[in-house]
């Protein structure tokens, strides 16, 4: 299995609080991604990174920011969490080229009350 | 509008039979398409990638076809086993989103002994 660790695995928080999710990889892959998965919507891309300090928006980026200061770590931040951001969040990685398969972590289940 | 359609209803088949899952897409022109397996509480796992110039690809009991005229991919599991029970996701290159992957909602497969 690809070395991808997501933390925390579960989190419950209140509306309006900041939340940061962490993705850590040991594969030295260039590309890292954050997705959310919701019933009826499937996996949707939030943000992705193609190198240290190089990030771009995905399909559902509003309300989220990301940072990548090291190859191995990709952080997703909800500056002021809302109930609509309750979801399961997955981090994924891929090698140099975007056509490469993606390898996923086991997700973070986030509940915002 | 762009759509990726997978049968949202579960597919129930008997052990030993061939399972066939469908992925139809609209208003995409993907150069490649990928299939993933997802088990409950886990992240998706990459299975197969097929490029637009490949009509068919096989891996052990798995076979994928890609028809760019019909805008459809079929995913077959031959001699299915209860261990094949999972949700299967198709994903394709989205030319309108920086060539990132866009995922379908997945089809749940249940193989009964």
List keywords for this structure.
heterodimer, A: 113 residues, mainly beta, seven-stranded mixed sheet, 11 strands, B: 113 residues, five-stranded antiparallel sheet, globular
- Cα radius of gyration of chain A in angstroms: 13 Å
Estimate what percentage of residues of chain B fall within beta strands: over 45%
User: How many helical stretches of chain A?
Assistant: 0
Low-confidence regions of chain A = none
Write structural notes for this entry.
The complex is a heterodimer of chains A (113) and B (113). Chain A is an all-beta fold and 113 residues long. Helices cover 0% and strands 58% of the residues of chain A. In chain B, the strands form two sheets. In chain B, strands 2, 4, 5, 9, 10 and 11 form a six-stranded mixed β-sheet that branches. A five-stranded antiparallel β-sheet of chain B has the order 1-3-8-7-6, with no helix packed on it. The model of chain B has no long low-confidence stretch (mean pLDDT 93). With 113 residues, chain B is mostly beta strands. Classes of the chains: A mainly beta (113), B mainly beta (113). Chains A and B meet through strand 5 and strand 10 of A and strand 5, strand 9 and strand 10 of B.
Describe the structure concisely for a colleague.
Chain A is mainly beta and 113 residues long.
Please describe the topology of this protein.
The complex is a heterodimer of chains A (113) and B (113).
Chain A: E1 4-7, E2 10-13, E3 19-25, E4 31-38, E5 42-51, E6 54-57, E7 64-70, E8 73-78, E9 87-94, E10 103-104, E11 108-112
Parallel strand pairs in A: 2-11
Antiparallel strand pairs in A: 1-3, 3-8, 4-5, 4-9, 5-6, 7-8, 9-10, 9-11
Chain B: E1 3-6, E2 11-14, E3 19-26, E4 32-38, E5 45-51, E6 56-59, E7 62-67, E8 72-77, E9 86-94, E10 100-103, E11 107-112
């Amino acid at each position: 299995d690809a070395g991808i660790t997501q933390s925390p695995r579960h989190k419950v928080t209140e509306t309006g609080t900041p939340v940061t999710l962490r993705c850590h990889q040991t594969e030295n892959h260039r590309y890292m991604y954050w997705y959310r998965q919701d019933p009826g919507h499937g996996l949707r891309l939030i943000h992705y990174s193609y190198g240290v300090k190089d990030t771009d928006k995905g399909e559902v980026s509003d309300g989220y920011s990301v940072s990548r200061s090291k190859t191995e770590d990709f952080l997703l931040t909800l500056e002021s969490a809302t109930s609509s951001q309750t979801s399961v969040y997955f981090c994924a990685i891929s090698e140099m080229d975007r056509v490469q398969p993606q390898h996923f972590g086991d997700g973070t289940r986030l509940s915002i009350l | 509008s762009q759509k990726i359609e997978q049968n949202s209803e579960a597919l129930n088949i008997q052990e030993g039979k061939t399972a066939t899952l469908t992925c139809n897409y609209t208003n995409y022109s993907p150069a490649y398409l990928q299939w993933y397996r997802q088990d409950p509480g886990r992240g998706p796992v990459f299975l197969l990638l097929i490029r637009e110039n490949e009509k068919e690809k096989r891996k052990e009991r798995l076979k994928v076809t890609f028809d760019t005229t019909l805008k459809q991919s079929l995913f077959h599991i031959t001699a299915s086993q209860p261990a094949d029970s999972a949700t299967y996701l198709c994903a394709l290159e989205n030319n309108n989103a920086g060539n990132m992957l866009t995922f379908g909602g997945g089809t749940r497969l249940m193989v009964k002994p």
